[in-house]
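How a chain folds remains the central question behind the approach discussed here. For one protein, we set the task of working out the structure tokens from the amino acid sequence alone. The sequence in question and its structure tokens are set out directly beneath this paragraph.

_____
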Amino acid sequence: MRNTYIYTETKKLIKKYGTRDPFEIMDQMNIVVGETSRYKTLKGYCFMSCKTIYVMISSFLSEEEKMIVAAHELGHIILHRSQLKMAPMQDDTLYNMTDNTEYQANLFAADLLIEDEEIEDMVQNEDLDYFGLCSSLNATPELMSFKLYSLTKRGQAYHMPMEIQSNFLAK
């Protein structure tokens, strides 16, 4: 995928549905979203059955984590729809860097949930460090790392203050 492909797909969705909220977007797309308490370690999964797409999110997650998982699963739906027909896409570790589909879904989630302009505005504040930036934008440091990586891949110059961790939600 080109450096701008995932970002472009998120922009199209935001424009079409008028929101960055993955739950609202999935509702408007007639995707069935539910919560499950069946699995302790599984964060979420999505699958297709009889032409209906389903997303299940762990009820054990915080509201912030549920939003990230929802955006991540929406990334799979938009970017990897053909794979949904073969088997459910299951995520017990968010921010996985070893699997290309997971990596792409992570970039999608970061681009959907965090606006470029918000970062541009915040980095002008010299008193704000990386974690202050994350806190101000209600983003986890790991999600912010993916967003900064996306910005960098699209030609903007941002310093990556931490490595992208593949297993931060697996704890």
